[in-house]
Amino acid sequence: MVKRISTTELRKQNRNQVFRAVYEAQTPLTKQDISQKLNMSLPTVTQNLKELFDEEVLLYAGTEESTGGRKARLITLNTDIYFAVGIELSPKHIRFIAINLRAEELAYKKVEFPFRNTLEYRQFYAQQLEEFLDENNLERSRLLGVGITLPGIINEQQGIVEIAPVLQVRHMKLFLLTEVIPYPVYVQNDASAGGVAEWWQYEGLNAMAYLFIGKGVGGALMIDGKPYEGNTLRSAEFGHMCIEINGKLCDCGKRGCLEAYCSSSCISDDLGLTIEEFFQRLQMGEPLVRKIWEEYVERLVTAIHNIHMVLDCPIVLGGVLVPFLEDYLPMMREVLKRKAFFPEEEQCLLLGKCRGKANCIGVALHFIYDFLEQI
Ligand SMILES: [Zn+2]
Fold this sequence. Notes:
The protein is globular and about 75 Å long. The protein has 3 domains: 71 residues, Arc Repressor Mutant, subunit A (Orthogonal Bundle), CATH 1.10.10.10; 130 residues, ATPase, nucleotide binding domain (Nucleotidyltransferase, domain 5), CATH 3.30.420; 148 residues, ATPase, nucleotide binding domain (Nucleotidyltransferase, domain 5, 2-Layer Sandwich). Helices cover 39% and strands 22% of the residues. By secondary structure, the protein is of the alpha/beta class. The protein is built from 12 helices and 15 strands. The model has no long low-confidence stretch (mean pLDDT 93). The strands form 4 sheets. Strands 5-4-3-6-10 form a 5-stranded mixed beta sheet. A 5-stranded mixed beta sheet has the order 13-12-11-14-15, sandwiched between helices. A 3-stranded antiparallel beta sheet has the order 7-8-9. Zinc ion (ZN) binds next to loops. The site of zinc ion has 6 residues, from loops.
């Protein structure tokens, strides 16, 4: 049986297609461009454009260069008409980001404030959010929603943070986090949010593994733009893959986990250095630092190779190290090439483009994706 679409539904689809055509175009389009691109009649395009102009989500952007005759008007996205906010809660600080409809950063701030499972803490970030909006002249009427991301397993069905070891939280009701925010709110695991942000940056993939390296090591497995969460919300725990039998003790209590060898602490806190200092010394060629780095890469790349053998997809690194890794990417790919089973496997290793802000951006993107679907 052919499923019939109601007229209202069809109108909505047309409108969405017209909007998307302008949104996805690299340059402004004319009405005729849209009509051709969508194979839609000019009157239908015109009608939909009128609605979208009335709502101010599209704009005229001058006229086309013309070789004669009447110049056609160019249509583009009103990029800053709406925005979304992402808030990242972590053990020592809170970060805020505002992004526009193209996921470009409008404002950012980081506040040092240790996590506590108290109402005062929650009221603090709610208050900081209001100040953030005021300081940056972000109009509340244009705010699509506020995403909150944290390092924990979020069970939306049960409405709880199941567990967030680094925050020392267990079975915390989600409404406690959200009730202090007077806007639409969405809560997401930090690594999943990071995966969403990098997915947005890397167009045209079917699947992607996002490997996050911080004090904890985790990640997300992105399939068709969505984090694949697994049967019990525990997928992509790359940090606790065993890479060394009877190896170093991990924070999780087991031995030989990737996190025990490749957390950012292994090349900073554990050595009494900051990450910047570590890479400075590495650049100066200090033999001991160089040896530690080579061992670090050996382990990390082993994990990357293993992930690739299972998933056969690009592996995007995220987290605090990424800005320092650009110079070392060729060397890391060389190591991967040596371990590779398939030719050109080393090409699967990519660096995240969000420069340490992926988690905040990703959770805010929830509302941008929602907007793009609904408009
Ligand atoms: Zn572990």
